[in-house]
Design a protein that fits this description.
The complex is a heterodimer of chains A (363) and B (242).
Chain A (H helix, E strand, L loop, with lengths): L1 H10 L2 H29 L6 H37 L2 H6 L10 H14 L2 H60 L2 H17 L1 H20 L6 E2 H19 L3 E7 L7 E2 L3 H13 L7 E9 L3 E9 L8 H5 L1 H15 L4 E8 L2 E9 L2
Parallel strand pairs in A: 2-4
Antiparallel strand pairs in A: 1-3, 4-5, 5-7, 6-7
Chain B lengths: L1 E5 L3 H11 L6 E6 L2 H11 L3 E5 L7 H7 L5 E6 L3 H5 L8 E3 L4 H24 L11 E6 L2 E6 L3 E7 L2 E6 L5 E2 L3 H7 L5 E3 L4 E4 L3 E6 L5 E5 L4 E4 L1 H11 L2
Parallel strand pairs in B: 1-2, 1-3, 3-4, 4-5
Antiparallel strand pairs in B: 6-7, 8-9, 8-12, 9-10, 11-12, 13-14, 14-15
Helix pairs in contact in B: 2-3
The chains are: A alpha+beta (363), B alpha/beta (242).
Chain lengths: 363, 242
C-alpha cells in the first residue's frame, strides 16, 4: 500500500492521493477481514505448517489480485472525475511535466510518444507489481495472524496438559487419603489382629490384601492408565478388607465381561466409586447392603457400572456436592482424557439402588 | 465393674473382650453394635463403664453420650481420630487407639476402677433415690467442644431461650434440656430453683444478703449474682433452717 501510495503522490495532488490512500487502506482491512472469516470457517489454524504455507501463499495472491483490481478501478474512477474538471491531470498521469514555451504541436507529439511508452507488456508488469506488492502485505498479515494463533494454541494445550496433571495428582492424593486413610488402615489392622485368633487363614489373606492395596496406592501414579483387570484387583482387595469390618453388612459381586477386562482406564476410577458406595451408603445402613460392579463392551465404548443399595438424597442442586470430591475429580479426569465422549453419572436406579455409570470411548 | 462394649465391628468387640478377660475387676455385661442398641443396653444393664468407639455408622459415640442423661465412665476407643479427641479440653479423658496396647488398657482400667470405687462409697451414703446426685457426670457438647462434667462442679443452670446454659469452671455451654426437666431430675438437697430462670448449686454459695421486700440475693463463688424470688425465698429459708 505504501509503494502504491508513493506512486500516486508522484502523479496526483496531495488531497486526492490522501483520499485514495485511505480508500486502499479500508479496502485492505475489508479484504483481510473477509479472509479471516474464511480461514476460521475452514479451520486453517488446525493445519500443519507445510500444508498451510502454499494455501496462505495462494490466498495472499488472490487477495492481492482483488485488492489491485479494486484499487485500479478506484484510481481510474478518481482520475476520470479529475480529468473531467482539469484535463492537464492527464498530462501529469502520463508523465509529462509542465513546460513553458512549447507549442501545441510539439506537446501533442510528446504526448503521443509518451502514450506509446505505455505498451501492453508494460501495463502488465505494472499490474503485476501492484498485485505482488499487495500480496506481500497480505502474506505478512497472515504470518502474524497464524503465528499468534499458534502461540495461543500452544498456550491452551499447555494449560490443558497442566490441568490433566493436576487432576491426576488430585486423584492420587485423594486415593492416598482414602486408603492410607489412617482410620481405614488401623481398623483393618485391629480386625486382622482379632482374626489371628479366630481364623488365622483369613487373617493371612487379609494381610496380603492390605499389602496389595498399600502397594497400589503408593505406586499407581506411575501409570496414566491401567487395565480394568488390574484396577479390579485393587477394588477386590479393598472390598475384602471392608468386608472383615462390615461382615454380613456388606455383600458384593462382580459381573465383568471377559473381553472388557483388557480395556485401559484411568486408575482409581472404579475404586473411587466403590469407596463412595461404602462411605456414603453401606456404612450408614445399619443392616448393610450390596455392591455390584459390572463392566461390558459396546461396539465403540466400554461401560462400567457400580450399583449399590441406598438412595441419593435429592435436595435441589446440592445433590452434586454431596457426592464428594472423588467423583468430581474423576469426572474432570475423564473429560480431560477423552473429551465429551466419556462421562460419569450417578443416579438413583430404583427405590433402593443407586447406580454410578462410567462410559469410556474405545479408539 | 459392669462393662458394656460399644463398637460396630464384631471383630473389634471380640478383640477388646479377649483383652479384658485378664482383668478380674471387669465384668462384661453386654455389647452393642450401634448407638440405638447401646442406649437400650445402657438403660437395661446400667453399666459402670463403657468402652466406646467414636466412629460408628449412623450416629457417633458422641451422639450416644449426648442422648444419655447420666453418663457412666467412658473409655473411648478409636482407630484414628485426633480431631474428635481434641474436642475434650476440660478434663483429661482416657482413650485407647486400636489396636489396643495391653499396658495402656491396664492403666485406663485401673484409673476408672478407682474412680468408680470412690463414687460407690459416696453413693452408699446417699439415700439411693433415682435422682441425679452430685456424683453423677453429664456429657456436655457445645459446638466443637465437649466436656464430662460432674454435677458437683456445676454452679448454675440458667434459661436461655429454648436451651439451658450450664455454668462450670470458666465455661458456659448450652444444653437442650429444659430447666423444668432438670429441676425434676436433680437432687433437691443440692440444687435449688431460685427463680423462674435459674437453678443454683447450694454448695457454690459464697454469701447471702437480704434484698427488697423480704427476698434474698445470693452471691455464688463464680461471681454470679442470683435474685431469689419472694416465693422461693420462703422455701429457701425452710430448707436452710433446722
Amino acid at each position: 500500500m505504501l509503494t502504491s501510495f508513493l506512486a500516486m503522490v508522484m502523479f496526483l495532488p496531495v488531497i486526492p492521493s490522501l483520499v485514495l490512500g485511505l480508500i486502499t487502506i479500508l479496502l485492505g482491512v475489508l479484504i483481510s477481514h473477509v479472509y479471516r472469516g474464511f480461514v476460521k470457517k475452514k479451520n486453517w489454524k488446525e493445519l500443519k505448517v507445510p500444508k498451510l504455507v502454499p494455501k496462505v501463499f495462494l490466498a495472499s495472491l488472490m487477495q492481492g489480485l482483488i485488492m489491485s483490481v479494486l484499487t485500479l478501478i478506484g484510481m481510474v474512477g478518481i482520475f476520470g472525475i479529475m480529468a473531467a474538471s482539469d484535463p492537464s491531470i492527464i498530462d501529469a498521469l502520463i508523465g509529462i511535466p509542465k513546460m513553458d514555451g512549447i507549442d501545441e504541436e510539439t506537446l501533442a507529439k510528446i504526448r503521443a510518444a509518451s502514450m506509446n511508452s505505455f505498451s501492453g507488456s508494460k501495463l502488465l508488469v505494472f499490474l503485476l507489481s501492484f498485485v505482488s506488492s499487495f500480496a506481500i502485505y497480505f502474506m505478512s498479515w497472515s504470518a502474524i495472524y497464524f503465528a499468534y494463533q499458534y502461540l495461543q494454541r500452544t498456550r491452551e494445550m499447555e494449560i490443558e496438559r497442566w490441568k490433566l496433571s493436576t487432576s491426576v495428582k488430585d486423584a492420587e492424593l485423594n486415593a492416598l487419603k482414602a486408603q492410607i486413610n489412617p482410620h481405614f488402615i488401623f481398623n483393618s489392622l485391629n480386625n486382622i489382629r482379632s482374626l489371628v485368633v479366630e481364623d488365622s487363614e483369613k487373617a493371612r489373606d487379609s494381610i496380603t490384601h492390605l499389602s496389595d492395596l498399600l502397594r497400589f496406592s503408593i505406586q499407581f501414579d506411575q501409570f496414566e492408565k491401567v487395565s480394568l483387570e488390574k484396577e479390579l484387583e485393587v477394588v477386590r482387595d479393598y472390598l475384602n478388607l471392608e468386608a472383615i469390618q462390615l461382615e454380613e453388612r456388606l455383600n458384593y459381586q462382580f459381573k465383568i465381561d471377559q473381553e472388557a477386562e483388557d480395556i485401559m482406564i484411568p486408575p482409581m476410577i472404579v475404586q473411587t466409586l466403590v469407596e463412595n458406595a461404602i462411605k456414603h451408603a453401606i456404612n450408614n445402613l445399619p443392616s448393610g447392603g450390596e455392591i455390584i460392579v459390572e463392566a461390558k463392551l459396546n461396539h465403540d465404548c466400554a461401560m462400567i457400572y457400580v450399583k449399590n443399595t441406598g438412595q441419593m438424597k435429592v435436595n435441589g442442586s446440592k445433590t452434586e456436592n454431596r457426592r464428594g470430591i472423588g467423583i468430581i475429580n474423576s469426572k474432570e479426569r475423564l473429560r480431560l482424557l477423552y473429551g465429551e465422549k466419556a462421562n460419569l453419572t450417578v443416579e438413583n436406579m430404583n427405590e433402593n439402588m443407586v447406580c454410578a455409570t462410567v462410559k469410556i470411548p474405545m479408539n | 465393674m459392669k462393662t458394656l462394649i460399644v463398637d460396630d465391628s464384631r471383630l473389634a468387640r471380640n478383640e477388646i473382650k479377649r483383652l479384658l478377660k485378664e482383668f478380674d475387676n471387669v465384668n462384661i455385661v453386654g455389647e452393642a453394635a450401634n448407638v440405638e442398641e447401646a442406649i437400650e443396653k445402657i438403660g437395661e444393664l446400667k453399666p459402670d463403664l463403657i468402652f466406646l468407639d467414636i466412629q460408628m455408622p449412623g450416629k457417633s459415640g458422641f451422639d450416644l453420650l449426648e442422648e444419655l442423661e447420666s453418663v457412666p465412665e467412658v473409655i473411648f476407643s478409636t482407630a484414628y481420630d485426633e480431631y474428635a479427641l481434641k474436642a475434650f479440653e476440660y478434663n483429661a479423658l482416657d482413650y485407647l487407639v486400636k489396636p489396643v496396647e495391653k499396658q495402656r488398657l491396664a492403666g485406663a482400667v485401673s484409673k476408672v476402677f478407682d474412680k468408680i470405687k470412690k463414687k460407690q462409697l459416696e453413693e452408699e451414703l446417699s439415700d439411693g433415690s433415682d435422682k441425679l446426685t452430685i456424683n453423677d457426670q453429664v456429657f456436655v457438647k457445645d459446638g466443637e467442644s465437649c466436656w464430662f462434667v460432674q454435677l458437683s462442679e456445676i454452679r448454675l443452670f440458667e434459661v436461655s431461650g429454648n436451651y439451658t446454659t450450664v455454668y462450670f469452671g470458666k465455661f458456659k455451654p448450652m444444653i437442650t434440656r429444659t430447666l423444668n426437666y432438670l429441676e425434676s431430675r436433680l437432687d433437691d438437697k443440692t440444687f435449688f430453683r431460685a427463680n423462674r430462670q435459674q437453678i443454683i448449686n447450694l454448695k457454690w454459695i459464697e454469701r447471702i444478703e437480704p434484698w427488697f421486700s423480704g427476698s434474698l440475693r445470693i452471691y455464688l463463688k463464680g461471681g454470679e449474682e442470683i435474685d431469689v424470688s419472694r416465693r422461693q425465698t420462703l422455701k429457701f429459708k425452710e430448707l436452710m433452717s433446722f
